[in-house]
Amino acid sequence: MAPQPLVNRIGTLVQHPQFTWWCGHCIVFFCFIIHLFYWITFRASEGASFYYTAYLGAMLSYGVVIYKSFGTPAPTWEYFQKINRDENVFYLVLACVWFMNAQVFANASRFIQSWVHKNYDKAMRTVSFVEQAFSDVARFLDGMLLPSANNSIHPYIANLYRQAKSAVIWAGQFQPQSGRQTSNSQSGRFQSRANTH
């Protein structure tokens, strides 16, 4: 018997529910990685579409799992009791709820902003302490991991440390988004703050 042509094999594979389940997982994985990049670089709002698309992938995967486990939905009490015991149904509902609500990070940033406005002096002392702590840690690591401070450090480790340090510095810099203008009061506040340091 001759093997089937590639087009027929791919067509058979694509029609199987397991392929849809796999596509849902791929969507979740890749959208998570892309959104994580935006989140790490403090631009989570720009990557919001990937955040929500990841939940669509999760809903797709859990929908396939539930369909394979329980078949076509039936509006009966027995069917409801049966799916009510399955944890995949709860995961699907959770993905739907998170898909329909705002990002958790957006809510956290609003909370932090309101807390800072209420407790400005405490917040500025905290910022000062954290800034000093990071400076102390950076100075300690520079003394331990740079070859000028310690000759036994391998050049590969020193180069890796320099690259990681420059990536952290790059991610922490204030980068205005293109097409958006900051107000004069905000830009003046940032300039006066930069001049005091």
Task: Give me some keywords for this one.
197 residues; single chain; 2 domains; mainly alpha; transmembrane; disordered C terminus
**SS field, number of helical segments:** 9
Please state roughly what percent of the residues sit in beta strands, choosing from under 5%, 5-15%, 15-25%, 25-35%, 35-45% or over 45%. under 5%
Main sheet characteristics: none
Number of beta-strand segments: 0
Helix content: over 70%
Listing every helix as H and every strand as E from the N terminus to the C terminus, the arrangement reads HHHHHHHHH
Query: Given the helix and strand composition, which structural class is it?
Result: mainly alpha
Membrane topology: Multi-pass membrane protein
Keywords: Membrane, Transmembrane, Transmembrane helix
Transmembrane segments: 19-38, 50-70, 90-108
Organism: Dentiscutata erythropus
Summarize the structure.
This protein folds into 2 domains: 13-105; 119-173. Helices cover 77% and strands 0% of the residues.
Polypeptide structure, described:
The protein has helices at 6-15, 17-40, 48-70, 77-84, 87-100, 104-118, 120-145, 155-172, 184-196. Mean pLDDT is 79; it is low at 180-197. It folds into 2 domains: 13-105; 119-173. The chain is mainly alpha-helical and 197 residues long. It comes from Dentiscutata erythropus. One of its GO terms (cellular component) is membrane. It is a multi-pass membrane protein.
